[in-house]
Design goal:
By secondary structure, this protein is mostly beta strands. Among the domains are: 174 residues, Neuraminidase; 161 residues, no CATH class. The chain is 2% helix and 31% strand. It is built from one helix and 42 strands. The strands form nine sheets. A seven-stranded parallel beta sheet has the order 29-31-33-35-37-39-41, with no helix packed on it. It starts with a helix and ends in a 10-residue tail after the last strand. GO terms for molecular function: calcium ion binding; toxin activity. Its main location: membrane. Keywords: Membrane, Repeat, Signal, Toxin, Virulence.
Length: 616
């Protein structure tokens, strides 16, 4: 089958004058499966040892992996020591990566694994105990992170300080930017950057062009409370995500649970990623880890056992979530097939995202496909636009036989057409009949046909408690319906249309995005509609009602209220708000030029600006 793939690509090249990328070489049709952990040549011999930790280049042409095989390169004869290789799926060439400078440099004299590959496949970062790869590292007892330039045949130590000092403790888990010039990694070292003087694991980033190394993960209020691990880096090398059990990296993190964060290397800004919808959404209430960026950097996928990140997830099984950094939304991705697919009932981990984030691949113990009836880990991909979930760990063919061994470590190309994974199955490929773990590449999509986004969800029917004078027809909700207690509560909605109903205390209700309905009832409440066309009703009490943007309706109710209906966004048009102050004797309304105010407002201040960009 693989020789046919190569013939297809060269025939296409002759006819068109264009040499195709691996989209034609790795597979000729949707569902075709390629064995990648093999020696050079289209039909090179299968590796005689376990192969694991595969990573695909963004263009899908190269797959890098670690292996204990001894028959992939003549220089590699030690079965007990893993090495790193890269397979060119277009040319059918397998190359030893973990070696010293030169095209035939000495093979590493220690174990090498955990590879990461640049977008074009030129650079590979990896971990090695070897003491003969770079003169700067001679201690075989301390694993280091290295970078191999496959074009120039150089191998360089990455885990070192800005002054050149070699890390004085283990370094591991490299992640590499698209151009290969920035490598993030974790290390127990205490001499890599200022601010790190303990022996706990931290995350660092090294700029290989500038020759600088910075601490990414610290400090918290008490850095000695935990470790920071599992770095992921955005394609442009500007942002690093990581998991951490350190307490106090952000104010809302006061527990020792593992959370996912990201830091901008230029600004130093630190952001909590593992949280529910909203810019200030609730922090995950269980461990979160394994972050992964989309190629364009606006999404982060992660695994979490939290039960408060998505309304569809109420258990403490690990699931895969995707956080939209621009829209501040968090959605579960480890679902069965269909737009309303069911949540997995067992752990889902190890997410990988496509360039745009439309596709997410992950490993799961859940039976998310009818062909999956066992308790083995399998690899899936989900299309967030169509809701399609595909089982990837299966033999060739769209409905190929499911693997009879565990599969994990998914990686996908930028366009999500190709996915790689490691599997112990013995029924996926005709040349693989043993129980060794091998690396495979699957053509998931063939030529991707653009699909229109799904239609917006229809408003859910709403039943409101009788004491709340909010008409359901005025509040089409597709987000959250919340009835608060009589104690004074604080509650934020999400990006969708929410109904937040306060109780008797002094409530703080924030609608955020969507067409929200906020009702304070009794108490001195503060209501903030956020973006969208909202309805804000203060109820009794001295309330403060605030608008951000949109055409909103305000009702102050009893009490001396302050209603700020002025738009506070400089984007778009000014809204046309309707304001009624209610029965208070000293109400105040702050409005824009287009707003309408009732006669029950004792004091009215009208701002004169007519366009949003004129707001100061």
């Amino acid at each position: 089958m693989e020789s046919a793939f190569k013939a297809l690509i060269w025939l296409s090249a002759l006819l068109t004058g264009v040499v195709l990328l691996p989209a034609g070489s790795a597979a000729a049709a949707v569902g075709d499966l390629l064995l990648a952990s093999r020696a050079g040549g289209a039909t090179g011999v299968k590796g005689d040892g376990d192969s694991f930790e595969p990573r695909l280049s963004a263009d899908g042409r190269f797959v890098v992996f670690a292996t204990t095989a001894t028959n992939l390169d003549p220089a590699d004869t030690d079965a007990a020591v893993p090495d790193v290789y890269v397979r060119d799926l277009q040319a059918g060439v397998t190359t030893l990566v973990s070696r010293a400078v030169g095209p035939d440099g000495a093979k590493g004299d220690g174990a090498s694994d955990a590879p990461a590959i640049s977008a074009d496949g030129r650079y590979v970062a990896f971990v090695s105990e070897a003491a003969n790869l770079d003169p700067a590292k001679t201690d075989a007892a301390v694993p280091g992170v290295f970078l191999r330039d496959l074009r120039e045949h150089t191998t360089t130590l990455v885990s070192r300080a800005s002054d050149g000092a070699t890390a004085n403790a283990d370094a591991a888990a490299p992640a590499i930017s698209a151009d290969g010039h920035v490598v993030a990694f974790e290390s127990d070292a205490t001499n890599l950057a200022s601010g790190d003087t303990d022996e706990l694991t931290d995350v660092f980033a090294r700029d290989l062009t500038a020759g600088t190394t910075v601490l990414v993960s610290g400090p918290g209020t008490d850095p000695r409370t935990g470790a920071s691990t599992q770095p992921a880096i955005s394609a442009d090398g500007a942002t690093v995500a990581f998991s951490s059990t350190v307490t106090g990296l952000v104010p809302e993190d006061t527990d020792p649970l593992s959370d996912v964060f990201m830091r901008g290397l230029a600004t130093g800004a630190l952001t909590l990623v593992s949280r529910s919808d909203g810019a200030d959404g609730e922090k995950g209430n269980a461990a979160s880890d394994s972050p992964a960026f989309s190629g364009d950097g606006h999404l982060v996928a992660f695994s979490s056992a939290a039960a408060n990140l998505d309304p569809a997830d109420l258990d403490n099984v690990s699931d895969v979530f995707v956080r939209d950094l621009a829209r501040h939304t968090t959605a579960i991705a480890s679902l069965s097939d269909g737009p309303t697919g069911g949540k997995g009932d067992a752990d889902s981990t190890a997410p990988a995202l496509s360039q745009t984030g439309r596709f997410v691949a992950f490993a799961s113990l859940s039976a998310l496909d009818p062909a999956d009836a066992d308790a083995l880990a399998d690899v899936y991909s989900r299309d967030s636009v169509t809701g399609r979930t595909r089982l990837l760990s299966r033999a060739s063919g769209v409905l190929g036989t499911k693997g009879d061994g565990a599969s994990d470590s998914p990686s996908i190309s930028a366009d999500a057409r190709f996915a790689s994974y490691a599997s112990a199955a013995a029924n996926l490929h005709p040349e693989d009949a043993d129980v060794l773990t091998d690396v495979f590449v699957r053509d998931v999509l063939g030529t991707l046909v653009p699909v229109a986004p799904p239609a917006p969800r229809a408003p859910a029917p709403v039943t409101l408690p009788g004491r709340f004078p909010v008409a359901p027809a005025s509040c089409p909700v597709d987000g959250t319906l919340v009835v608060l207690t009589d104690a004074g509560d604080r509650r934020r909605g999400g990006p969708r249309s929410d109904i937040l109903l306060g109780g008797g205390g002094p409530d703080v209700l924030r609608g955020l995005g969507g067409r929200d309905c906020l009702y304070g009832e009794r108490g001195a409440d503060r209501l903030d509609g956020g973006a969208g066309d909202d309805l804000l009703s203060g109820g009794s009490g001295a309330d403060r009602l605030i608008d951000v943007r949109g055409s909103d309706r305000f009702s102050g109710g009893a009490g001396n209220d302050v209603i700020d209906a002025r738009d506070h966004s400089r984007r778009g048009r000014l809204g046309r708000d309707r304001v009624s102050c209610g029965a208070g004797a000293r109400d105040r309304a702050l409005i824009d030029v287009h707003d309408t105010v009732a006669r029950d407002c004792e004091r009215v201040s009208r701002r004169k600006v007519r366009t949003a960009h004129a707001i100061r």
